[in-house]
């Protein structure tokens, strides 16, 4: 489109809207407006991809508002009494922002614009039903609800336009798959309507466009109202990103002392604050909430020190930096958003809560702390800078050397080249099918099953749903009394459970509880914790950071869903325990890091110097020589030692003692798939469990004695790629991740009211046995495969190994690259063993725990008691034997197994565990009882703790605590 034509974009709008544009100061259309307004004004569907701040919202809404005004002006009154347009966003906060932005347009154009979501008052809901607005701003979940309302359903019949904001965010989530069916349900009411999708970044525009407009298998060539246009303004060309691994300078040593951290972290904090000071308003993105909290805590302490004596030596006023993430209360979030927008804050540390288009005013720089992991995430975040300005978005990625810097370099280059990851759409998610079958029944009271099937398969993610699978889901719902199935007429109708189920499951977000965090000292709530974290790790004595302060858990109340905490006055004496989940690194990014390492190794082998190699890379990537040189130090040492370098074309397996590491730069999902495959097959060969830990560049296995790199090499070279999926299904059979997912899926099918009723291991074993072979089990497997694994790419890798395209080499020892892995988040370390009060808390907690004592000599005496009441050398009061086992208080099964004559395999395992426990107690007395009473410490690990022969009691409890934390960290990796 020529510039002349582009400048005429506003001429496609009517005189009323053009006059309003002049009043609003819109004299020149932006790039997306020049390209998109003409087709949108003509009523065509469109996917608009453009950087944040480039006027995407107005691009979509100006033609929509113009259409509504034009229809009214032509007749002098609203031609249709209902809702003319829906504006759907993934966040309530975006709804609030959108309402603020549209208020002026509504007043100027005499249009009624309203917001509807879960917090909308009953009065406002009634008002909207009786007098529908022209434009309704809502969320995907609220659309589900209003489709079933008798009055609003009539109003929805007049919908002519639907705008879906941040469509990329929904395309990769089940709630997005749910929305696509919701739009097909809306189409049954309103007929065809214009669909407009907005996003800052989309890696697969064609697929996301089809996700938006639907058509399924009935309209595969985008005929009729399923056609769409793609308008794309390159975000990469408008982003200027630099990668920086901060240099440690003299004053970082003093700063580290004040922050109770190491010099590296001190240099990061100093550099971030310097960047904030150099700009007017800076967003500081981090990848996990715990990193946000830790960084916020350091910034807070530094600000306090600056107020006292100007620690950083600049002489400038301290910078004001606050914290923003999803676990903070709504009032806290809104407060910091407003303060940042008003200029009262210089910087805002945030997670993905700020990634989408929440209006926080003008941002002139973005800091990304740590690699952003994905190209899309980097573009989305850096795109926040330059908001509402016709300028390049500028950002700095602060890295931590090694993998982190090389990965950030690869992502920055790929962002500049526009190589965005494709959307990871949930295809044929059966719990979404179940949810939407009930939704259609709620809409229409009674409906033929064929109509429901056609409605669902008209949505793009469900175009390949087969009739037999659909029928299985219907029968499951009927069996759970969520609808009536009349098999003679093939009709579906409401049952007694339909209404309750539907309104309890408006969202496809997993029904996971949120625990309130309550500070007993101030008697106030300070935030929330996810149930997954509480279930997995939180216990009395554990420490974590929230709102920039450190807290110790005093009590976890499951009934009240409350975690009671006390503040820690001196955080320098504590080790924060909270470790978050990594954002997965895609295969192409990890492969580029592997390719870089291979390129460096070749250059060094050819006689080049590390300095020359670093300089060459700095010329090609947006990074300075010193940061590159620091990132390559492990690779340089690796080559100097003569080890083979792992690349995207070479796997390197290395081992030491009971650890084997597979160096594989193929990203999180491929490596997770490889890890589960190898752990299962090697474990099957050896008859022992194999532990695993995964990052994008290496997999570390804890193996039985006698297992080394050659075993893993043989498995990799002999595994048939065609059997990969079957192997993985077997490997996942007893995995906690499958049980957790199965429970969530079962809840969405109405099979269990709420998955959390099965406490402990979520009732997973019984649920697995009961649901195997059902659509619920099939969906749980599909979701684990979709979310955590990558079967096609892993199969392709195994095939490449077989045909020699990818080589495998072994190293006789641990290598610099193999041991250079990173943790899940930025770690803020404190002096080791500065934990006296933590140890005291652990000691008291274990002393007050209960234990089951059982005599394995006479087999008659058992007693449940608190650990503190156990004698130094327990003995049976009936027969006087000291062969007393210390078991979990609910573990009567082990005692029964010892009593049993002919034992099956499971009973034999339980009996052996009881006998090992009794042997430990007989040999080591109460110390063995204490060790085995700790979380995740059975007889095997208790023996390891005892064998450390700690004379210092604190050291003994420190070993116990270390084992508990190791158990919490690796629990999901063990069968």
TrEMBL record:
Question: InterPro entries from the xrefs?
Answer: ATP-dep_Helicase, DEAD/DEAH_box_helicase_dom, Helicase_ATP-bd, Helicase_C-like, Lhr-like, Lhr-like_DEAD/DEAH_assoc, Lhr_WH_dom, P-loop_NTPase
Q: Which PROSITE patterns match?
A: HELICASE_ATP_BIND_1, HELICASE_CTER
Biological process GO annotation list? Answer: DNA repair
Keywords on this record?
ATP-binding, DNA damage, DNA repair, DNA-binding, Helicase, Hydrolase, Isomerase, Nucleotide-binding
Give residue ranges for domain Helicase ATP-binding.
37-220
Highest taxon listed in the record's lineage: Archaea
Gene Ontology MF annotations: ATP binding; ATP hydrolysis activity; catalytic activity, acting on DNA; DNA binding; helicase activity
For the Helicase C-terminal domain, which residue ranges apply? 271-431
Pfam families from the entry?
Answer: DEAD, DEAD_assoc, Helicase_C, WHD_Lhr
Q: Which family does it belong to?
A: Belongs to the Lhr helicase family. Lhr-Core subfamily.
The name on file for this protein is ATP dependent helicase, Lhr family
Origin species, per record, is: Halorubrum vacuolatum
């Amino acid at each position: 489109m020529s510039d002349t034509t582009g400048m005429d974009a506003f001429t496609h709008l009517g005189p009323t809207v053009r006059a309003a544009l002049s009043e609003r100061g819109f004299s020149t259309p932006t790039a997306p407006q020049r390209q998109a307004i003409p087709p949108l004004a003509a009523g065509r569907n469109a996917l608009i991809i453009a950087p944040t701040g480039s006027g995407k919202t107005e691009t979509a809404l100006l033609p929509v508002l113009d259409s509504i005004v034009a229809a009214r002006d032509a007749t002098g009154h609203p031609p249709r009494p209902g809702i003319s347009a829906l504006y759907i966003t993934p966040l309530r906060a975006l709804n609030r922002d959108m309402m603020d932005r549209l208020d002026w347009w509504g007043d100027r154009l005499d249009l009624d614009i309203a917001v509807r979501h879960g917090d909308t008052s009953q009065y406002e809901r009634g008002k909207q039903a009786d007098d529908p607005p022209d434009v309704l701003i809502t969320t995907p979940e609220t659309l589900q609800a209003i489709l079933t309302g008798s009055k609003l359903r009539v109003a929805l019949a007049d919908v002519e336009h639907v705008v879906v904001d941040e469509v990329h965010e929904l395309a990769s989530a089940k709630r997005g798959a749910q929305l696509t069916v919701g739009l097909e349900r809306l189409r049954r009411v309103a007929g065809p309507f214009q669909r407009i999708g907005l996003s800052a970044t989309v890696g697969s525009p064609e697929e996301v466009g089809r996700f938006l407009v639907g058509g399924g298998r009935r309209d595969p060539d985008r005929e009729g109202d399923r056609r769409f246009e793609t308008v794309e303004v390159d975000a990469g060309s408008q982003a200027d990103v630099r990668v920086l691994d901060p240099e440690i300078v003299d004053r970082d040593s003093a700063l580290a002392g004040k922050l109770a951290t190491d010099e590296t972290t001190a240099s990061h904090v100093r550099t971030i604050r310097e960047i904030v000071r150099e700009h007017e308003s800076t967003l500081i993105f981090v990848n996990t909430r715990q990193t946000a909290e830790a960084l916020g805590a350091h910034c807070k302490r530094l600000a306090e020190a600056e107020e006292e004596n100007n620690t950083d030596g600049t002489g400038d006023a301290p910078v004001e930096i606050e914290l923003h993430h999803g676990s903070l209360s709504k009032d806290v979030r809104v407060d910091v958003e407003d303060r940042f927008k008003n200029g009262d804050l210089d910087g805002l540390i945030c997670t993905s809560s700020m990634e989408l288009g929440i209006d926080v005013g003008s941002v002139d720089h973005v800091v990304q702390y740590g690699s952003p992991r994905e190209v899309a995430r980097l573009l989305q975040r850096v795109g926040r800078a330059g908001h509402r300005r016709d300028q390049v978005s500028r950002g700095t990625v602060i890295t931590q050397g090694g993998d982190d810097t090389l990965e950030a370099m690869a992502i920055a280059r790929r962002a500049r080249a526009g190589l965005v990851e494709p959307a990871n759409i949930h295809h044929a998610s059966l719990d979404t099918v179940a949810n939407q079958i009930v939704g259609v029944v709620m809409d229409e009271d009674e409906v033929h099953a064929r109509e429901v099937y056609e409605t669902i398969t008209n949505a793009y993610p469900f175009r390949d749903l087969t009739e037999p699978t659909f029928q299985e889901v219907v029968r499951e719902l009927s069996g759970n009394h969520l609808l009536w199935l009349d098999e003679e007429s093939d009709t579906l109708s409401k049952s007694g459970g339909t209404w309750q189920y539907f309104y309890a499951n408006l969202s496809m977000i997993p029904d996971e509880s949120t625990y309130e965090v309550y500070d007993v000292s101030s008697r106030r709530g300070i935030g929330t914790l996810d149930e997954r974290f509480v279930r997995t790790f939180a216990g009395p004595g554990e420490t974590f950071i929230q709102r920039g302060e450190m807290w110790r858990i005093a009590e976890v109340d499951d009934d009240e869903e409350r975690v009671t905490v006390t503040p820690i006055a001196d955080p320098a004496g504590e080790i924060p325990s909270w470790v978050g989940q990594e954002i997965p690194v895609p295969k192409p990014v990890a492969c580029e890091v592997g390719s870089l390492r291979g390129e460096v190794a070749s250059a060094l082998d050819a006689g080049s110097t590390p300095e020359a190699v670093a300089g060459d890379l700095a010329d090609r990537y947006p990074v300075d020589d010193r940061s590159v040189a620091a990132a390559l130090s492990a690779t340089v040492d690796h080559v100097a030692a003569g080890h083979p370098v792992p690349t995207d074309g070479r796997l390197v397996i290395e081992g030491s003692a009971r650890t084997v590491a597979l160096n594989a730069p193929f990203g999180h999902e491929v490596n997770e798939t490889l890890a589960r495959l190898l752990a299962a097959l090697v474990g099957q060969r050896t008859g022992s469990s194999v532990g695993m830990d995964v990052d994008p560049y290496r997999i570390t296995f804890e193996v039985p004695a006698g297992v080394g790199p050659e075993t893993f090499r043989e498995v990799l070279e002999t595994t048939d790629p065609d059997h990969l999926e079957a192997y993985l299904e077997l490997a996942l059979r007893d995995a906690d991740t499958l049980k957790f997912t199965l429970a969530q899926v079962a809840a969405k099918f109405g099979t269990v009211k709420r998955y959390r009723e099965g406490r402990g291991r979520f009732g997973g074993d019984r649920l697995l046995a009961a649901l195997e072979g059902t659509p619920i089990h099939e969906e749980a497997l599909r979701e684990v495969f979709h979310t955590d694994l990558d079967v096609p790419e892993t199969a392709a890798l195994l095939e490449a190994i077989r045909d020699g395209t990818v080589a495998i080499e072994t190293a006789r020892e641990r290598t610099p690259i193999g041991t250079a892995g990173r943790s899940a988040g930025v770690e803020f370390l404190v002096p080791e063993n500065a934990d006296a009060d933590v140890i005291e808390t652990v000691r008291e907690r274990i002393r007050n725990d209960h234990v089951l004592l059982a005599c394995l000599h006479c087999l008659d005496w058992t007693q449940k008691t608190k650990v503190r009441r156990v004698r130094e050398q327990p003995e049976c009061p009936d027969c006087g034997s000291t062969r007393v086992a210390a078991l979990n208080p609910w573990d009567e099964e082990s005692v029964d197994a010892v009593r049993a004559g002919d034992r099956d395999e499971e009973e034999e395992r339980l009996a052996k565990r009881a006998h090992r426990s009794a042997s430990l107690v007989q040999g080591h007395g109460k110390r063995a009882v204490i060790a085995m009473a700790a979380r995740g410490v059975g007889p095997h690990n208790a023996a390891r703790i005892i064998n450390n022969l700690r004379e210092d009691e604190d050291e003994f409890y420190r070993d116990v605590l270390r084992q508990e934390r190791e158990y919490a960290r690796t629990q999901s990796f063990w069968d």
